Description:
13 strands; alpha/beta; four-stranded antiparallel sheet; globular; homotetramer
Amino acid sequence: xxxxxxxxxxxxxxxxxxxxxxxxxxxxxxxxxxxxxxxxxxxxxxxxxxxxxxxxxxxxxxxxxxxxxxxxxxxxxxxxxxxxxxxxxxxxxxxxxxxxxxxxxxxxxxxxxxxxxxxxxxxxxxxxxxxxxxxxxxxxxxxxxxxxxxxxxxxxxxxxxxxxxxxxxxxxxxxxxxxxxxxxxxxxxxxxxxxxxxxxxxxxxxxxxxxxxxxxxxxxxxxxxxxxxxxxxxxxxxxxxxxxxxxxxxxxxxxxxxxxxxxxxxxxxxxxxxxxxxxxxxxxxxxxx
Amino acid sequence: xxxxxxxxxxxxxxxxxxxxxxxxxxxxxxxxxxxxxxxxxxxxxxxxxxxxxxxxxxxxxxxxxxxxxxxxxxxxxxxxxxxxxxxxxxxxxxxxxxxxxxxxxxxxxxxxxxxxxxxxxxxxxxxxxxxxxxxxxxxxxxxxxxxxxxxxxxxxxxxxxxxxxxxxxxxxxxxxxxxxxxxxxxxxxxxxxxxxxxxxxxxxxxxxxxxxxxxxxxxxxxxxxxxxxxxxxxxxxxxxxxxxxxxxxxxxxxxxxxxxxxxxxxxxxxxxxxxxxxxxxxxxxxxxx
Amino acid sequence: xxxxxxxxxxxxxxxxxxxxxxxxxxxxxxxxxxxxxxxxxxxxxxxxxxxxxxxxxxxxxxxxxxxxxxxxxxxxxxxxxxxxxxxxxxxxxxxxxxxxxxxxxxxxxxxxxxxxxxxxxxxxxxxxxxxxxxxxxxxxxxxxxxxxxxxxxxxxxxxxxxxxxxxxxxxxxxxxxxxxxxxxxxxxxxxxxxxxxxxxxxxxxxxxxxxxxxxxxxxxxxxxxxxxxxxxxxxxxxxxxxxxxxxxxxxxxxxxxxxxxxxxxxxxxxxxxxxxxxxxxxxxxxxxx
Amino acid sequence: xxxxxxxxxxxxxxxxxxxxxxxxxxxxxxxxxxxxxxxxxxxxxxxxxxxxxxxxxxxxxxxxxxxxxxxxxxxxxxxxxxxxxxxxxxxxxxxxxxxxxxxxxxxxxxxxxxxxxxxxxxxxxxxxxxxxxxxxxxxxxxxxxxxxxxxxxxxxxxxxxxxxxxxxxxxxxxxxxxxxxxxxxxxxxxxxxxxxxxxxxxxxxxxxxxxxxxxxxxxxxxxxxxxxxxxxxxxxxxxxxxxxxxxxxxxxxxxxxxxxxxxxxxxxxxxxxxxxxxxxxxxxxxxxx
Lengths: 289, 289, 289, 289
């Protein structure tokens, strides 16, 4: 991780709902001369869980950066039985991209990265095919081809994990990567693997959703970005969007229209992740605005 | 059926795709001094099926109205092995509405009917509850309460069919009618029963889709209007639409937002049906624009 | 105003942005045993203005209802130079509906009211035409016909204001009311008159926006609900939505599709108003989620 | 222009509406053994103009390609007083891209071109800045920097036209090109210059539409692709789309969200142009599906 820009601290919190949380957290920050830049909270009234994202300027904050976590835990976290994560806005995340043969999501990601839309490092691209190496080369990003078949899968995943660790990867984006990851692999990056699935889940999970959508005769198609879990296409949903189709659209029209959706929905999910605006609870996400 | 307005004829056609169909049909109309008001065609290239909707002014048409069907069948239909339906725009369709206890779709339908948005007759409303009788009364439409339970179902459906037949009903709208119709009933009105289901099918078929959508953590909810077939929520889809939701929406928010979708999607389906712009083929619909 | 339901208090606040506001407000509520049900805040970083909506349960709140305003003003409001409004959730608002001759928005409003979608009283409907009296009668709401022309306008507005005052009206909804209100009238109900305009403002203000949209060849049409100000169609926007059109749509198709938009957009604006989720500042709105 | 793929012929027709057009055109094609692949027609009932796009397979067509235009003109065009254009699907169009300093639309265009989403040649990119030369280099497309100021404008446009002519350019895409083209330049490529404007026109024409949208407090922002005419942002609209925003979005959020809209809307317009599915009439477009 590299550092830059005037820094702010970000807390993502969830805990049992109870009175006094907001007052306690905001007072903690205010007392130490932190200026709140963002505050959003949500209460799940059914499950009685409190969720919060709060961000404050570190410029005049009187607690040194390295002590914030322990101070907060001691003064506030323990009292409210909080589950919280502390981030710093000047820490650039490191993202690995997994692809197969379809270029559209990869191009979209690399264009945004190259144009500084996103404040992220992309140290490597991993693929089970050689097809998109040229694309990676254009953007001068190391591209590792690790073909996967039924026999070598666990061996290749070991190699992938080594590459990811060696490159200090924070999270993985599956940009139309056409391989199912093993449970072991997934648990090594629990809640840190973002997939794009080309249907409005839970409709049409698994393979060939555009063909199924055509067959069923739906009037809208969709895309879903979600965190990968052990169960296929069943992880917490981050973002979805749809587009209208008609009887006049062939399967190849669906694929064409769907491509644009996939790019859009995946990139919005990555944006939210980079902003630390996603909280996962009970296989659902809280997406702060 | 009652009659009104300057009349046009409407043909809905499907047949094996082959050259010369459009030329033959348009020439048939032109030769008999019919002025084409609307022409839309679609070819399913995979299944090699041709679909067409054509409408023409009857003012100067030289074939008498009652002979058009047989003339067309003889000259064109047989030659191209056509499956076709002939409608006349001045024939007002007769619609029965089935409801249970939720008023929003019923109000929406009756308001549109009363405001002459739709050129349709509504001779009766059938319900398994007495709840919405007051609403029907406001609009002076006969309301028949036929409570349904596991024992009396086939008896009540018999009564319903009698009422429908006695009232010359052309098609049925299930405006959040919370009963599953028997296969027998459905086949009596094959492709003439329009349902509104409160999810983006094929996601969340069956009961309580808003609860399931909440549980799954989707970011969009939808509504689907479709023709009723023997298999539950699996008939040809006419129209779908969606609205965005977030983690901040409770189940009751989903129900509230969904209500507006249901009204909109159902009313669009009814509109298309009244315009004779729906063609059904292989459990899918062609919806002409 | 009538009263009902377990009560909560709602504060809508804006003030110059500064540190400690959230902590102070939440502590004020917590100290007096109020349980926060909702908290959303927004900071306009450019104008340095802080906005907040906070709602709390009054069940165990130790300050009596009639003293909350003055206590809050004294302890918090003055300190932060706040502009705030206090509402109680159990106070049912009283809404007047103004219409002309188009029934769709009126039907939509009355259906929602009758179905208890909205917790509101509608003591009267005012119109410059007699056309929709029958509709009002169906729902048993007093309907006052006050025809307006260039000569009698100020006289009729005086009558309208008398009716509104006599009925303790809190806010007015112009449900396609085709008259421009005088500045005097508007200032009597400043920020309390909601209009629906049938275009995506600022495009196509004034008369006949569907005709202008058709003429310009746009591919989307819209609707806008906004508060009425002295300048025509230029007040703070509450809600907008759009629908796609194509070259195949005639002006009457635009009017038909637009009707559904108008109903939807106006009803969403009314819903937000009833929830006390709208804050107006500098001719723009903050709409809390 | 280069050639490839099994060829079809495409006719884009408009003419005064009259009976017998469709029959005549389809018979012309059928008589010469052409198999119709696509037929869509539209009648502007107000202006009494007939529009049609028809496409047929040339495989067995008995009129040689180079004679089709004159044969059609003689047999059909003259009779119906048609204004028509004949295209061949195997003729690859040649597109010039004009950019300034914003990379997102350029990346999107080049990615689609490189991935063979679009069947088009891009012989050159022209810019008034050097900023995006690196991007062009990645994709190995010649990049010409022609800085424009108030003095050298007509000289630079002359140079641009020379480059365009030397490269046999069929149409121009302004991918956020921040210069107003002279009337002379525009008339050299009449109805062949596609612009993307970052608002839902006719709202917010001209400079800084996101700032104006923010200022006005709209709840949706849009993008519009249109053909360039002498009047700024007033040419025939090809495609529009929108996205929702809220009070929480700053101007930079609008710019960020708008970028994705611009890419999407511009690319859809280019797609339609490449499919020869756009017909222009009276400053409006007919966009065939």
